[in-house]
Specification:
The protein is an alpha/beta fold and 202 residues long. The chain contains eight helices and six strands. A six-stranded parallel β-sheet has the order 3-2-1-4-5-6, with helices on both faces.
């Protein structure tokens, strides 16, 4: 029995010769007792990236988008949680964060952005940060690459490269839209990614 985490991964297994009858897509769940919303204390808008700091994850592109937006929104802050060879300047680098502290990181920010541009040998398969952020009620803006659209589903905004910056700007500048997206993300996470529900499927 094969248990891929996305339909896209299932298709790859089929192309490799696996019997479709022996393949069941099973989404990893998120611990909603650990990852859940709590009141924010900051006033400025914080954009969060949770990722390895490598080229294929779009680190440099996200920093460039942030610096472009910061010219107009001077209080905007970009927070990056993760390690890697790239060390962008002018942003808040948290480095490696303990799993049990990540809920605090999500809740201390206002938007999660995800920009996995990929490479000739890699494309995004499953971003756990996406469902953890949704479980914390964080609005999602993600690049439509790899399995991102399948994972985000109805819990966030999945857009093209040309749509990415204006979409992030809309979320930054419109408080009611941002709150609405956060409620949407939380609802989707609870209905699709709650660990107890995923365990029952297994």
């Amino acid at each position: 029995l094969f248990l891929p985490v996305t339909k896209r991964a299932k298709q790859v297994l089929i192309e490799e010769g696996c019997d479709p009858k022996k393949i069941t897509v099973l989404n990893p769940g998120v611990d909603t007792k650990l990852f859940h919303p709590f009141p924010k204390k900051h006033k400025n808008v914080k954009v969060l990236v949770v990722s390895r700091l490598v080229a294929e994850k779009g680190t440099l592109e996200l920093v460039a988008i942030y610096k472009d937006l910061k010219r107009k929104y001077i209080d905007l802050e970009l927070v990056i949680a993760g390690e890697g060879p790239l060390r962008p300047s002018g942003v808040t680098l948290l480095g490696k964060v303990d799993y049990y502290d990540m809920s605090k990181v999500y809740n201390d920010c206002d938007i999660l952005v995800h920009y996995p541009i990929g490479s000739s040998t890699w494309s995004e398969q499953y971003g756990m940060a996406l469902i953890e952020a949704m479980a914390c009620g964080l609005p999602i803006v993600a690049l439509d690459q790899g399995s991102t659209r399948e994972v985000v589903g109805g819990g966030g905004l999945v857009v093209s490269e040309t749509q990415f910056l204006p979409t992030v700007e809309k979320v930054i500048s419109n408080n009611s839209f941002r709150r609405s997206l956060g409620h949407q993300a939380l609802k989707f996470a609870k209905s699709h990614y709650k660990a107890k529900l995923c365990a029952q499927e297994l």
